[in-house]
Design a protein that fits this description.
It comes from Rhizobium quercicola. InterPro entries: DgoD-like, Enolase-like_C_sf, Enolase-like_N, Enolase_C-like, Galactarate_dehydratase_3, Mandel_Rmase/mucon_lact_enz_CS, Mandelate_racemase_C, Mandelate_racemase_N_dom. There is one protein chain. The chain is 37% helix and 16% strand. With 379 residues, the chain is α/β, with parallel strands linked by helices. The protein has two domains: 101 residues, Enolase-like, domain 1 (2-Layer Sandwich); 241 residues, Enolase-like C-terminal domain (TIM Barrel). Strands 4, 5, 6, 7, 8, 9, 10, 11 and 12 form a nine-stranded mixed sheet that branches. Strands 1-2-3 form a three-stranded antiparallel sheet, with helices on both faces. Helix 9 links the parallel strand 8 and strand 9. The longest helix is centred in the N-terminal third of the chain and has 22 residues. The chain is globular.
Length: 379
């Protein structure tokens, strides 16, 4: 068996662009993968065309060899776009390997260590407590969710006194705790909007007494010593990692004791192959993995196989999609978990390629926050 072609399909999931990749082989077995769209979406297809020539004619089942080849042919370490492209290729190769063997991918990873995968729902905003109660109760009724992620910001954090926002956040979480079932878990995603670490420490203190599931990415990821200091001064589980790329960056974070939970993205770090290396490093540091997954149904399928086989997995991010017509039979939560599909080889999801022929691309840009004085801030 050898690789014959690579196709790209720029599509959307709900209102965000998503790029799907299909690799075809001489035996008629094909595999699918998904890129993370970091921003310059239209730069990815030509990059993938370039990378295809590095693997054309190769045996797709040699996943480790081919991913090493793609990384090592780069003179400099691949960055955001390069690793996103390699991630999709890696996914597609694993899918082919599973289909060729007649096995789910997780069986190629040593088999499943759990029978199902726990998920939480990203709400992402900070709705009024009563609306949050109704929304989470509905999600619980529909899918069995007991874990959710919301924002700690009830308003623009650059307007008004910071201490007032901290107080409001504490009161907000306290009210949510009062009116929602006690078994519900709530995480807070601060979206790296805080520049000064002491403010992140103050915000953590405001939510600590109400037992958050985790406190995600309050500050930027670049300066690892700041994460070490932050973790040493807060009393809530600290999570980060969606903006880190390689095992080397995660190793620096772990060695600095900078997180309780890491959140690598399997569509960012280089795919399943690199994701497993990162997770093993975390396991050796007594750190769990909660994959970043605001993606489409295909990326969710890839994540489920990773989570099924990874011992130190904690919980997977998943928000039900409204628009992804190319996913014929997406994984959906049952009782707050994703069920495995042991009778389906590869990723266990069917892609309607005919549906992908329709141009469904949507342009999206991250909005830049402006402070009251006109200067820019992290969004």
């Amino acid at each position: 068996m050898y690789i014959t072609s690579l196709k790209t399909y720029m599509q959307r999931v709900d209102e965000r662009p998503r790029l799907l990749v299909k690799i075809e082989t001489s035996e008629g077995i094909s595999g699918w993968g998904e890129c993370y769209n970091h921003g310059p979406d239209l730069a990815l297809p030509p990059l993938l065309d370039y990378l295809f020539h590095q693997i054309e004619g190769e045996d797709p089942r040699r996943v480790e060899y081919l991913i090493l080849k793609l990384n090592q042919q780069c003179r400099f370490p691949p960055g955001a776009l390069g690793l996103a492209a390699i991630s999709a290729i890696d996914h597609a190769l694993w899918d082919i390997a599973g289909k060729a063997a007649g096995l789910p991918v997780y069986m190629l990873l040593g088999g499943n260590v759990r029978d199902r995968v726990k998920v939480y729902c990203g709400v992402y905003t900070a709705p009024d407590p009563e609306y949050a109660r109704d929304q989470t109760l509905q999600l619980h009724e529909d899918y069995g969710y007991t874990a959710f992620k919301i924002s700690p910001y009830r308003r623009d954090l650059h307007k008004g006194r910071w201490g007032e926002l901290v107080r409001e956040t504490g009161d907000y979480f306290g009210r949510i705790r009062e009116i929602t079932p006690s078994e519900f878990e709530f995480a807070f995603d601060a979206h790296a909007k805080i520049f000064e670490p002491y403010q992140a420490i103050q915000l953590a203190a405001a939510i600590a007494s109400h037992d958050p599931l985790f406190y995600e990415e309050p500050i930027r990821p670049e300066h690892i010593p700041a994460w070490s200091e932050l973790k040493s001064k807060i009393n809530v589980p600290l999570a980060t990692g969606e903006s880190l790329y390689s095992r080397f960056e995660f190793l620096a974070l772990l060695n600095a004791r900078g997180a309780d939970i890491i959140q690598p993205d399997i569509c960012v770090v280089g795919g399943m192959t690199e994701m497993r290396r990162i997770a093993t490093l975390a396991e050796a540091h007594y750190v769990t993995v909660a994959p970043h997954n605001p993606m489409g149904p295909l990326a969710t399928a890839v994540n489920i196989h990773f989570c099924a086989a990874q011992p130190n997995f904690k919980i997977l991010e998943f928000k039900p999609h409204v628009h992804a017509p190319w996913a014929v039979d997406p994984y959906m939560p049952v009782d707050g978990h994703m069920e495995l599909r042991p009778d389906r080889p590869g990723w266990g999801i069917e892609i309607d390629e005919a549906c992908l022929q329709k141009d469904d691309y949507v342009h999206w840009e991250r909005k830049i926050t402006r402070k009251p004085d006109g200067s820019t801030a992290y969004p």
